[in-house]
Every structure is written in structure tokens, then in C-alpha cells.
Amino acid sequence: MKKSIIALILALTPPLAAHVAYHERYDYSTSRPYKIKQEIEKSIALYSHFSSPEDLDMVTFTLEDSDFDPALTLNGQFGEVEEGQESLENEDHPLVVTDDNGVTGRRFHVGSLVPGCASYAMILPIVAIVGPEQEYLPAWEGSEHLPFTLQEGQGMMILDNEEQGDLWYEKFTFKSYFDQKKTSIILSRPGTYLVYVWEPRGNTGDYVLELGDIEVFGVPEIIRAMWYENYLVYDGEITCQECVDELEEVDGPNPTIWEIIDRLMFIIG
Q1: Of 118, 125, 129, 189, which residue is the least packed, with the fewest Cβ within 10 Å?
Q2: Is 225 within the bounds of a domain?
Q3: Domain assignment present for 226
């Protein structure tokens, strides 16, 4: 009962920069990837795991010609909370945008996080975005070994975490993470897109793939938050007990319901 109350309180709180949680229910491999079926701008956090040194995770989505209709919008929160603001307002955001370089298309945000325990300090994922060759996905000319094969006509961008990021405290899960590389690019061509994630040094453990940057919290998202928030607050997504113990040293023990209520009252103001 206590955990259900916590979940309800957290789920109904204004979602300040909160990605909707999705957990890796099975290994999102090249033979069975995670498929994005919603707008690619809609923010989600995909809680995943490198189960072996050779583990290669994959996310895929398709953009059709109709996905580049300038009339398309998505209602949600986007941008940074400015000084004096308590939260962002829900607004209709255009999905076809032009960036500062004059490239028009759909904005795609991607990045990674790793739980901020000492046991995971050496988990440094590489994230590769692959799709039809275009401005931000040029033909690959790098010399690095890739654990997959690029097809003719495909281009790629790579986020290579060569060193660990700074610790960042996520207030909704009461947990610290290593904040790693992120990017937002414009995808200008229809076609199939693939996001590959692997740990080039063969380290195993948990990570989070951050996708999209427009926060949408309607009824389906609130229901999902109610389902997952307990799971995350109580470290259900972390497969290494040593990491859980180390996080308790970094962040303190898991919160009580009264600590959560106090935190939420502070956030609400």
C-alpha cells in the first residue's frame, strides 16, 4: 500500500524535465529491437542493460514522407526552465523545424546515462545513429571497428563517451547518474533509422538511453509513471547489488513516503 501511495503522488506531480520510463523487458538486440511507434520528439527514458561484453542493443523507427508535413504538432513541454519559472507550459510544438544551419526536418534527441555508482564508473557506451545518408548522418569514414555493418546509402553519427560524465542527481528517482554525451540533430529524409548502443570495452551493467526532448504527460503517460515509479525509486532497474549498495552511500537510503511528500511540496512550491 505504501508503495502504491508513493507511485500515485509521484505520478500526479508536474513532470519537470521527466522522461517517461520504459524498461528493457527483453534484450533489445538487432534481431528484436525496440521500436519507437510514437513521435520521435516525445521524450522517453529506456532503462537498459549490457548483459555480456558483446551485447549490442538496438532501437529503430521509420519516418515516412507524411512525417514531414509542416502542419504536424505535438503538445507538451520543451526547453529549459528559466529563472523564476516553476515549470514549463504545455504548448503545441511544430514537429518539422529548421535549425541554425538551415537544415529542415524532424528533430531527434539522443543521449545516455549510467547509474552513478563506483561499480559502473567504467561503463562508457557508444551510441550510433544510422539512417539514410544526409546532413547530420554523413557517409562513415572512420577507422573504428563497428559491431554492425553499414549498408550502401546509409550514413552515421556517433556519440563516443571516451571519459565518464559528471554526477547528476535525478530528483524523481532519488538517484545519481553519470551524465553522458547527448545530441539533438535534424533528420531530413524519410526512411528507416537505427540507434545502436554498445560498450566497446566489454563492461557489463545498466544504462539509460535518453530519447526525445518534448515532455508529454497525458493519461497514458501518467498510468505508465504510476506503474514504473516505485520500480525506479527502489532500484528495480539496477541488476548489480553492489551498485545499489554504493548508490545508498552516495545518495543515502531510499526515501520514506514523508521524504517524498516533502520533496514534492518543495518542487510544487
Answers
A1: 118
A2: no
A3: no
pTM score, whole prediction: 0.85
Q: How many domains does the chain have?
A: 1
| Domain-embedded: residue 136 | yes
Instruction: Answer whether residue 127 is part of any domain.
Output: yes
Domain residues for the domain of 52 are 17-217
Angle between the 257-268 and 2-11 helix axes, to the nearest 10 degrees?
Answer: 10
Full pLDDT tens readout for the chain, 269 residues: 334 433 443 333 333 345 667 777 778 899 999 999 999 999 999 999 999 999 999 999 999 999 999 999 999 888 665 555 556 678 999 999 999 999 999 999 999 999 999 999 999 999 999 999 999 999 998 877 899 999 999 999 999 999 999 999 988 788 999 999 999 999 999 999 999 999 999 999 999 999 999 988 666 666 666 666 677 877 889 999 999 999 999 888 877 767 665 655 554 44
**Burial environment of residue 70 by CB neighbours within 10 A (0 to 12, 13 to 18, 19 or more):** exposed
Strand pairing category for 96-98 and 104-115: antiparallel
